Amino acid sequence: MGALKHVAVYRDFVFTKINDAGPDFHAYFGDVLGAIDNLVDRSPVWPPAHRRRRAAQRHPLQLEDGAGEHQRHRAPDVGTRVGDAGGGCTVARSADDAPKPMAMEQILPFGAGHDFFDRMGGRVYPNGHSMLGTNFSIHSGYAQVPEYEAALRAAHGDARASEIPAARAAELGVFSEPVVKGSPQAIRVIRPLAADRTLLRPGAFASRAHPICCSSAR
Description:
Elements: E1 6-10, E2 13-17, H1 25-29, H2 33-41, E3 50-53, E4 57-59, H3 66-85, H4 102-107, H5 114-118, E5 122-124, E6 130-132, H6 146-156, H7 158-166, E7 171-173, E8 178-181, E9 186-194, E10 197-206, H8 212-215
Antiparallel strand pairs: 1-2, 3-10, 4-10, 5-6, 6-7, 7-8, 8-9, 9-10
Helix pairs in contact: 6-7
């Protein structure tokens, strides 16, 4: 096997291009590199302490939209983890402004109606990239965590620390395979294998500097 001529390393992620033709790395990805910046900068200390990865899953489906398929397959997984993430908590009827466990902040938006998701907004970038959640997303309602925000300011400065939590797109699809999420920090490779078969290969990143309240739920 010969060495690849077109290799780029961006924020510790390695990208390759087999063909000599076509745009170079920065011309191809353009503004979508900001999604990788956001994923990396959400960790006050990079690289993360460890990466949690499940075995690849093969699904009998035709991939029509990467973001939509990702949501449909992720939601049941999130549901199974709520008990552990929330310490087996139950949420009783309370005032709307009462603090909720972080696990409930994460799972409740998945039960929103179609109108919620229609209003999230989206954007298509050159070269086939796309973003879901340009107006807001299922991650926009998380409560502030002072310890985490202080760690971001110490690592990145006040200006960048303010920008990082503000970028809460649901996910960004990087054509042709990865789906990048900043909150929580995750990348899922969605790889069509055939007309009725798609490979999902998820990976999550665990920050070294998240407070316990963040790392336990994410």
